[in-house]
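Wed. Picked up where I left off yesterday with Subtilisin-like protease. The coffee machine is broken again, so keeping this brief.
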Amino acid sequence: MRYCFLISNTSSKACPLVISLVLILNGVFISAAQVNLLNKVHIVHLGAKKHDTPELVTKSHYQILEPILGSKEAAQKSIVYNYKHGFSGFAAKLTASQAKNLSAHPEVLCVIPSRTLRLKTTRAFDYLGLLPSSPKGLLHDTRLGSEAIIGIIDSGIWPESESFKDTGLGPIPQRWKGKCVSGDGFDASKHCNKKLIGAEFYVDSLAAETNGQYDFHAENEYRSARDAAGHGTHVSAIAAGSFVANASYKGLGGGAARGVGPHVRIAMYKTCWGKLGCLTPDVLKAIDHSIRDGVDVISISIGADAPAGFEIDTSDVSFGSFHAVMKGIPVVCSAGNEGPNAQTVDNVAPWIITVAATSMDRSFPIPITLGNNITILGEGLNTFPEVGFTDLLLQEELMETSIAQGQIKGKIVLAFTPNNEAIQKADRVLNAGCAGIIYAQSVVDPTVCSGLDVPCAVVDYEFGTDMLYYIETTDVPLAKLSTSKTLVGRPVASRVARFSCRGPNSVSPAILKPDIAAPGVNILSAVPDGYKFMSGTSMSTPIVSGIVGLIRQTRPDWSPAAIRSALVTTAWRTDPSGEPIFSEGATRKLADPFDYGGGLINPEKVTDPGLVYDMGLDDYIHYLCSADYSDNEISKLIGKPNQCPSPRPSMLDLNMPSITIPSLTGEVTVTRTVTNVGPADSVYKPVIEPPFGIELEVNPKTLVFGSNTTKNTFSVRVRSNHQVNGDFYFGSLCWTDGAHNVTIPVSIRTKILRNYV
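Structure written out below (C-alpha cells, as returned):
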C-alpha cells in the first residue's frame, strides 16, 4: 500500500523521500505530532468502480470511511467529493493518522494529500495546413467538427466572447449528458448555447482547504464557470473557437480568428482559482464528470513542477486519465513550461498524450534604429507608440544613484542580462521611468517584455554587442524604438520554444515524452477583454486536443493509443516548408525527440497513417508490472484480479510508437506490434536511420497484411558499439508501403556502468 505523505515500507517507490524533500525545500520542520493534528484534504483512490450505479459507489465510500472516523455523521462532514462516474474514490478532510489508517484498508489503492497544480501558460492553423476552405481534409470531413465535444479543465470561460457564438451550429449532439451551472456572473440559461454546451465549477476542495474563507471578490474571482484569469477562455478558443473576423491585439497579428474546429462544442470544467491555482481534488472531480458527460477528448493545460509524479500513486491527473482512457476518451496534457533543461517534462504517464510547444512562421520584429541610421530588428510585442530618437544608455554603466534620482527618464536603456543581478537592476531601471528598454540575451526570450508598461525589445548578444560598440564609439548615442510589425512566412524559422519542458522522462526513462509538439508561442486567442497573445504549452495543448476531437469523428473505432500513434508517426520532423526545426536552449541545436517527441503535428496526414501502434488494458498492465507496481495495486486500479508474470515484463517492449533505451549494455532485442488501418492488402518494408554508434536489425524484413492479417509483430535487435557511458543518440525506424511512411523515433543511451551518471 502506498501512502505518499507518511512513511511506508511496502513500496519500491519510497514515500519518505517525498515528504523529506517537501519539508527541506520549503525550509520548515514539522514534527510528527503537529502533522497528525492537521486536517487536510486527501484523495482516497479506490480504483475501478465495483458498482454500476453512482449511488451504490457513494454508499461504499461511507462504508469505508465510517469505521475510521467513528460515525456516519463524521464521515458525511469529512467527505468533500465522491468520485463515482468514471472511477471510484473520494476526497475527505483527514488527519495524518486517519489517512494512514485509511491507507491500510484492503479496498484502498492509495491516499494522496491534495496538491496545487498550475496553469501552463489565428495564424497557427494556416501554418499547419488545417484550412476550412479546403475541399477535402480533416475539417471538411468532420463538417468543422460539429459532432465533437471537447472537455476543458481550466480557469473557466468568458461566454460573451465572439469566439463562443453558436452561429451556424446545429443541434447539440444527443449523447451529451453534461450541464451548465449558474453562479456568480454566469446565467446558464443565457450564457450556454450550442457552442458552450457545458459549464461547471468546483469549489468544495477550495472551501475545505481554506476553511471556507476564500474571498472571491478580493481575489477578483467569480464563484462560477466565468473566467477571471483569461487562461481558460484563451485555451477554449484555440481548441474550438468560432470564426471571428478582424481579430488582433492592438493591430498585431490581424486576421480571422478561429479554433481548430470552429464548430466543435465546448464543455468547461473550472478547477483553477486565481493565484491559488488548481487543487487536485477539484481536478479529479472534473475528470470524473467529463467521463460521465460524454466528451470526446479531455484537454488539461495544467501540471506540477519537476520532478514528475508516479503514475497512480502521486499524480491524480494520471490516475483520473487512466480511467478516462480505459473508457476510450483520449487525455491531452501540457508538457510544462519549465524548459529547456532536460528531464523536466510533466504528465508523463504512457496513456496521456503529452504536448510540447514550438514557434511558427510568424514573428513580431521591432525596428531599433540607431543614430547612425543602422536598423536592428529586435523581437517582442511592442504596441506602444514609437519612442523617437533619444539618448541610448548602457545599463552596466548606470550608477545606482542615477537610477534612483530618475536621471534615466525619457531615455532608452540597453540591458545585458546574463545573471539575476543584472535582471534585478533592469527591473530598477524600469521602475525609474525609462522611455524604453532593450534586453540583450544569450537566448532570445521575448516573454520578458510581457506585462511591461514601457516599450520593450529583445536582441541576442550579437546584435547587443553591435549596439554596445555603437555606444562606446559615439559621443552622443541615440536610438529610436518603433512598434512591432507582423511578419509571416519566410524567413521566419520554427523552433521548439525555450520554455517547453524537455525529456527524457524522469519517472520511466524508457517511455518517450513528450509525444508531439504544436505551436505554442505568441498564439492569438480570446480573453475576457478581447484578444491577446499568450505563450506556453497551455497554448499548444488545445491545438492537439482539438485535432484529436476531429480524429474521433473520422476514426470513431480508434483507441486513444491508436490516435497517439497516428499523431507521432505522421508528424513533421521539419517545419511545414521543409526547413529543419531547431531547439532553443543554452545553445541552439537541431530538435530531437526529447524536445518534440515524434515531431510537429501534421493534421492533414493523421487520419491516414497506414499502421498504428495500438495499446489497450493488457498493454497498460504490462507497463504497470514492468514499473514494479504490486499485483494488489494493479488489481484495485483495473477492478479485477491481476497477477504479473515472473519474471516481470520489460518496459522496453511496451507497444509505444517509439523505441527508447536509456541503459543499453551490449545488446538487447525489443518487440512491437503494428495494426493495419490502411488498405487491406499492404506490404511494408523498413527504412532505418540508426543512432550514431548503434546497430539496428529489424526482423522480419517485410510485413505483409491481408484481409485475414491485420496485425504483425516485429523485433528490433539493438547493439551498441560505444565503449563508454554516453548520452542519448537519436535515429528513426520507418515502415513504408510507398504511400505511407510510418516513422517512430529511436533514442538510445549506452551505459557500460549502470546507475552512474
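Quick read: The mean pLDDT is 89.
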